[in-house]
Design a protein that fits this description.
A hairpin with a 2-residue loop joins strand 7 and strand 8 (290-292). The chain has helices spanning 2-26, 49-60, 72-86, 100-113, 140-155, 157-162, 194-215, 239-242, 245-258, 262-265, 267-274, 301-315; strands spanning 40-44, 64-69, 91-94, 119-122, 166-171, 221-227, 284-287, 290-292. The protein contains twelve helices and eight strands. Helix 2 (49-60) runs parallel beside helix 3, helix 5 (140-155) crosses helix 12 (301-315) and helix 7 packs across helix 12 (301-315). It has 322 residues and is α/β, with parallel strands linked by helices. The longest helix is centred in the N-terminal third of the chain and has 25 residues, at 2-26.
Length: 322
């Protein structure tokens, strides 16, 4: 009986430690009570995952949420679900970030129907896929995660500036700390490795946000890049193709226990979108609802400028000036 009691105590103790660890890994929640009544928020890729949870939260705050998604049917279902919960209507438009023409078409539509954009959240992304190319021949992860959002942001910038004070929030990742810009082979045609390509695209997100902040200084538009945490979402759905099935299984199996839920994973996105104290900051990097120091490579102004100029050429904007 004594051995059983000891064993039971051990099991309870281990279970309690695991529960405490899981709670700690979830991270903090955004504490801001800011309202967004009368504000328009645009979010990419928000029919599922942390984008959907950000849309839900910002709709609760009174925002008019505009969802830009590749899968219109899923987006409409998500919009109706959030509408039923918050009472606020959400608007859905098609956007394929792997097509420069789709981005241009969507931006043209938004110029006609959305004269004010108070918050743009560049949320959509793809992670560790095989070496696929966008419709314009760009490496898929750089093309979607960085170049697609780069073009969309610049095409919507007039509306964003006209709505100042306004914000541009870009979802990056702690993976940027393992990334480097492959300037000699940016599309990774000579040597492709799924993780390297992903890390490069996430480093590009932080560099873009930093350079954009400098170019928008004095306009009333602020920019933020963030790491949402390691979140249990559909983002890892391509790992079985680019790595192997066991890693894919392990990723999702352990994710159920130790990764952030989508609700908690959305908190830093929400924080960057609404936290009042950030209004005087721009170009910074955040994680767990707090400013964090990014990797030194993400602080290289020469690389940020080079990426800006290279991105302009790749998306066909030439000598675009803000």
């Amino acid at each position: 009986m004594e051995e059983f009691s000891l064993l039971l105590g051990y099991v309870v103790g281990v279970g309690g430690c695991l529960a405490a660890l899981r709670a700690w890994l979830q991270g903090p929640s955004c504490k801001s009570k800011a309202r967004l009544d009368g504000k328009t928020v645009i979010i990419t890729g928000c029919n599922t995952g942390i984008g959907k949870e950000a849309a839900r939260d910002l709709s609760h705050r009174g925002a008019r949420v505009v969802m830009l998604c590749r899968d219109l049917q899923k987006a409409k279902v998500a919009a109706e679900e959030i509408h039923q919960e918050t009472g606020n209507a959400l608007v859905v438009y098609h956007l394929d970030l792997a097509s420069l023409q789709s981005i241009k078409d969507t931006a043209t539509t938004l110029k006609d129907v959305e004269p004010n954009i108070h918050i743009l959240i560049n949320n959509a992304g793809v992670m560790m896929c095989p070496r696929w190319e966008t419709k314009d021949g760009l490496e898929m992860q750089l093309g979607t995660n960085h170049l697609g959002h780069f073009l969309l942001t610049l095409l919507l910038l007039d509306q964003i500036k006209a709505s100042a004070p306004s914000r541009i929030v870009t979802v990056s990742s702690i993976a940027h700390t393992q990334g480097r810009m492959h300037w000699e082979d940016l599309q990774m045609k000579e040597h492709y490795e799924a993780k390297e390509a992903y890390c490069q695209s996430k480093l590009a997100n932080v560099l873009f946000s930093r350079e954009l902040a400098k170019r928008l200084r004095g306009t009333g538009v602020t920019t933020y890049a963030l790491h949402p945490g390691v979140v249990q979402t559909e983002l890892g759905r391509h790992i079985h193709q680019s790595v192997n099935s066991f890693i894919h299984w392990a990723f999702h199996f352990f994710g159920n226990f130790f990764f952030k839920t989508v609700e908690r994973g959305a908190q830093t996105t929400i924080y960057c979108a609404v936290e009042e104290s950030l209004s005087s900051h721009s170009g910074k990097y955040y994680s767990d609802c707090a400013e964090k120091q990014p990797h030194p490579r993400a602080l290289c102004d020469d690389d940020a400028r080079r990426l800006w100029d290279t991105s302009l050429q790749l998306v066909g904007l030439g000598q675009y000036n803000i």
